[in-house]
Design goal:
891 residues, six-stranded mixed β-sheet, 26 helices, flat
């Protein structure tokens, strides 16, 4: 009897332990399942929202494409290709197979349409040279896929009649009759080799001159459709990441047909799916069913294992209690004490487990709240930063335009007045002061704009071929004169064999070196400034004031075309030097480290801009300085060697332009500011151009029809018809096909320049207008040859405005000038090409002593050499050499 009682007690303990374990296990499992179901539902909802948002993005892109056809009467293949390239489909519309245009063609126009496409588009793209509507069959009308970009992966679909298949035709007819976007049912794209399910979305385009308020009017006014084909698998995979797709099985069906996953008429296998969720998504009039089914293993993390742990722990504890109770049943007191202790331990474990679970829930909630607050804070900060950047860009653009407009009048008339020969010396000096002050203000504006572009990461480098020795010699000549005026020494040192030519952004490289050399001269009161250019594999050689290669240096090794050359540019001075604190602030915008008068000179932007330009070149400006002893600035750049530098450097300054050869050209100036019109009229009319001015875009169109100009120079921002609309009207007229349009605007941001050139402009001229830049653009676009004033003092009187002038000899050399023999000219020209001014003048003086008839020729050499007019010296010597060869070769 006692043994039976002991057995009952042991089994009762086991039963109680297992029962408690089962209850705890059930509670924990239910909680984990609830959390996992919420996790699954959240991911399914987000996936549905992501797909809906992606299709809204596609529709927005189609509406933008529809706007292109609304704005233009017709769009050529080249225009459509450029437009689609600007959309950047892989980045902004991932998953889309392309964007195209479907043209509606009545049956009686099919043959004529095919011939017209082959004729108009065949030259631009070989695919269109064999264009024909396919499949070949007779139908009342054809919905022909005319454009589809990118063409490389859609070439097979060009010319396809989308009306040949019922699903496509129904979508096109629905879009045509409703005026809204319409999607097809399941289709297979002809260009899809995998033959996966796809769909198309079409948005109708109507003739803009015809009404389309009713269904009948829409059918009569139909021009075609902007169109986009999709592979459903591409849309899903581009929208949902691989990690998200691993959470569930997704089946998309439309009218019983599977668009993605599963098989026709069936959902994903449900036997292994614990959770299911269905959504319905509207795709341009078609309803998709999205069936989400969970995959084995979907869980919330480590919490998934808690029920199993509790079950295992409870079972072990229960069995342990049973064994202990059974073993110690002989001693009731000991068994009861042990059972009491073990039960207490079990309860404590359960309490700790419950506390751990509650603590985990609290931490999860707190972390979720923290992440939400951090995201909201980051989003608000980003929106504020974006708004500030936009406001800054708009302010800088507005201020640049407002400052450049009056500067255009100031600098324009300063250039015009400086060309007058009736000015006294005092008046000429006053005009020069006006021009210098205006140029300084323009430089300040450009510096601020450059800094803004750098901060917005919009500044780009535009490399071109340049001759290294000529580039360096120009800097040496400028700063040697400045240093001599200040009473300090200037030394140029070349190390190693410099390349003859490299490809670099000459404007930006010059901007950096002008700033470094200018600062060195400005902050040096005594001693010297040294400018070094080093080929990093060469050896140094100092040359005072002359940019020439070291003597006795070995010929450079043969290098492949375009090989990178490492150059170091260094500027060293014996000026005031910099402290450690000053060096830390040196490259900050608007920071100046000088004292006294030097602190008021400049804007504090030069070094900040220079440092950022050098960073764009892949380098950094290094500084070594000590207060009271001077400073050294240097940077290393790797530039590709250029062999075409000779063409880039063959620009010859020939003096003041006074007219041009050939028939008179007509120029129409369109600007709503009278002072801007007056500047251009007074610059161009004295050169013989027939200049007409218009005060706005509407007046400009009327004047263009009446005058039929060769060139139109127009502003962008004008009341009424602005510059963009004006250019579109001018480009639409067939009789103005050869018209040259130059956009002249104070809006100098790249976006404005790109917009003006895209709208039909041939070139862009920034305000304030520089006379030499304007004349260079006119010469390039009109193909005219300038007539220059004679270099000698005999031509003191300027010709009357508009009157043709006698053309001087080439290079501005008097035809009666006695030149040395060809051998001597060759020596002089070689010195000029090397930039060695001093030896050139000495050689000319030696020739003068041998032949007194060369005195006028040598006097002109001395005058140009004293002013360091290297280009004019080269032009003069080339002209004499050409004349000498012509005489020698005469019969």
């Amino acid at each position: 009897m006692r043994t039976l009682r002991r057995t009952r007690i042991a089994f009762l303990v086991l039963l109680l332990g297992l029962t408690a374990t089962a209850l705890v296990f059930r509670t924990m499992r239910q909680k984990v399942e609830d959390e996992t179901r919420a996790y699954f539902d959240d991911h399914a909802t987000k996936a549905t929202d992501a797909l809906a948002h992606r299709f809204q993005t596609y529709l927005a892109g189609l509406r933008a494409s529809q706007g292109l056809f609304v704005a233009m009467r017709d769009v050529s293949y080249a225009q459509w290709k450029r437009y689609v390239e600007t959309l950047d489909l892989p980045r902004n519309y991932a998953g889309i197979n392309g964007v195209g245009f479907v043209r509606y063609v009545p049956a009686d126009r099919k043959a004529a349409y095919e011939e017209e496409v082959r004729r108009t588009q065949g030259a631009a793209e070989p695919t269109y040279a064999r264009f024909e509507v396919k499949p070949a069959s007779d139908r009342p009308g054809y919905f022909v896929l005319e454009y589809l970009e990118p063409l490389e992966k859609n070439r097979q679909a060009i010319g396809l009649d989308l009306g040949f298949e019922q699903a496509r035709r129904e979508a096109l007819e629905t879009a045509r009759d409703t005026g809204r976007a319409a999607a097809s049912g399941r289709i297979t794209l002809v260009q899809d080799e995998a033959r996966t399910p796809g769909l198309m979305v079409a948005l109708p385009v109507y003739h803009r001159d015809l009404p389309h308020g009713t269904v009948e009017e829409r059918r009569a006014a139909l021009l075609g459709y902007v169109y986009a084909p999709f592979r459903v698998i591409s849309v899903v995979e581009e929208t949902l990441s691989a990690a998200v797709r691993q959470t569930f099985d997704l089946t998309i069906t439309h009218r019983g047909e599977v668009m993605y996953g599963g098989e026709d008429g069936q959902d994903a296998p449900a036997a292994r799916s614990l959770y299911r969720r269905d959504f319905f998504l509207d795709i341009a009039g078609q309803t998709w069913k999205l069936a989400f089914r969970s995959r084995p293993g979907v869980h919330m993390g480590s919490g998934q294992r808690l029920p199993a742990i509790v079950l295992a722990l409870g079972a072990v504890v229960s069995l342990l209690l049973f064994w202990i109770t059974w073993s110690l049943a002989s001693s009731r007191g000991r068994a009861e004490a042990l059972a009491t202790r073990m039960t207490a331990d079990l309860r404590e474990s359960e309490n700790r487990l419950r506390e751990h679970t509650q603590l985990l829930e609290i931490r999860v909630e707190e972390r979720t709240a923290e992440l939400k607050i951090a995201k909201e804070t980051a989003d608000a900060a980003k929106e504020a930063a974006d708004a500030a950047n936009l406001a800054k860009s708009e302010f800088l653009a507005s201020m640049s335009h407002e400052l450049r407009t009056p500067l255009n009048g100031i600098l324009g008339y300063a250039q015009i007045l400086s060309r007058s020969r009736s000015l006294s010396a005092k008046e000429a000096q006053g005009i020069s002061v006006i021009q210098q002050c205006g140029t300084h203000l323009l430089t300040l504006i450009n510096d601020i704009l450059d800094l803004s572009k750098i901060e917005a990461r919009k500044m780009e480098l535009f490399p071109r071929a340049l001759h290294v020795q000529s580039f360096v010699q120009g800097l040496v000549e400028i700063f040697r004169v400045r240093a001599e005026q200040k009473g300090i020494a200037f030394t140029y040192e070349q190390a190693g064999e410099l390349p003859a030519g490299v490809r670099a952004d000459e404007k930006r490289l010059l901007q950096v070196l002008l700033n470094l050399l200018g600062n060195a001269v400005k902050f040096t009161e005594a001693g010297r400034v040294v400018f070094r250019v080093r080929a990093l594999d060469g050896e140094a050689r100092a040359i005072d004031g002359e940019a020439r290669a070291p003597e006795g240096q070995r010929a450079p090794a043969q290098r492949p075309p375009g090989a990178l050359r490492a150059l170091r540019f260094e500027v060293e001075d014996t000026g005031v030097g910099l402290s450690a604190a000053q060096r830390e602030r040196l490259f900050l915008p608007f920071e100046q480290v000088g004292t006294g008068k030097r602190l008021t000179e400049g804007t504090g932007l030069g070094l900040a801009i220079s440092a950022r330009i050098v960073e764009l070149m892949g380098s950094a400006i290094q500084v070594r300085s000590e207060p009271g002893k001077g400073s050294s600035f240097w940077f290393d750049v790797r530039l590709p060697e250029a062999g075409e530098w000779a063409k880039a450097a063959a620009v010859v300054a020939r003096g003041r332009v006074t007219g041009y050869k050939g028939p008179r050209k007509k120029i129409l100036v369109i600007d709503d500011h009278p002072e801007n019109r007056a500047v251009l009229v007074d610059l161009l009319a004295p050169l013989g151009f027939e200049v007409t001015a218009a005060e706005d875009g509407q007046d400009g169109l009327a004047q263009a029809a009446a005058v039929r100009p060769d060139v139109v120079i127009t502003d962008l921002l004008m009341p009424g018809v602005d510059g963009i609309e004006l250019m579109r009207h001018l480009r639409e007229a067939p009789e103005r096909r050869g018209l040259v349009i130059i956009v002249s605007s104070a809006s100098v941001f790249e976006a404005d320049q790109h917009r003006s050139l895209t709208a039909g402009g041939d070139d862009f001229l920034a305000k304030p207008v520089r006379a030499d830049e304007l004349l260079d653009k006119l010469q390039r676009h009109l193909g005219i040859a300038w007539i220059y004033a004679q270099e000698r003092g005999a031509a003191n009187e300027a010709p009357p405005a508009g009157a043709p002038e006698a053309e001087p000899p080439a290079g501005g050399v008097d035809a009666g000038l006695v030149a040395p023999p060809p051998e001597a000219l060759a020596v002089l020209l070689d010195l000029a090409n090397k930039g060695r001014v001093k030896p050139l003048v000495e050689e000319a003086a030696r020739l003068e002593q041998a032949d007194p008839r060369l005195q006028p020729f040598v006097a002109q050499i001395r005058r140009l050499g004293a002013d360091f007019e290297i280009k004019k010296l080269r032009a003069m010597l080339r002209s004499c050499a050409d004349a000498a060869r012509g005489v020698d070769g005469a019969p």
